[in-house]
Write a structure and sequence with these properties.
2 helices; single chain; mainly alpha
Length: 79
């Protein structure tokens, strides 16, 4: 491989990483603006995100438990 093809490969990889980073930064920005987090301090944003995470986790965990209970109670019962 000559030097120009190596440089063009590096540029393509850098541009691809840059595009992914820009996409992630755009979604973080939209999340902050949608929920009004842009006006909070960093620690308030962290508390809000933790609260949201635990709320979503408990909803998921509850639905999995109810689903497994219903599955074992009604679909897998031998009687």
């Amino acid at each position: 491989m000559d030097q120009s093809s190596v440089n063009s490969t590096k540029i393509k990889k850098t541009a691809k990483k840059s595009g992914i980073i820009n996409w992630v930064n755009r979604w973080i920005y939209l999340y902050n603006v949608t929920f009004g987090l842009y006006m909070l301090d960093w620690w308030e944003r962290c508390l809000f995100n933790l609260l949201l995470f635990f709320l979503l986790w408990s909803c998921y965990n509850g639905s999995v438990r109810v689903g497994s209970y219903l599955l074992s109670r009604y679909l897998l019962s031998s009687t």
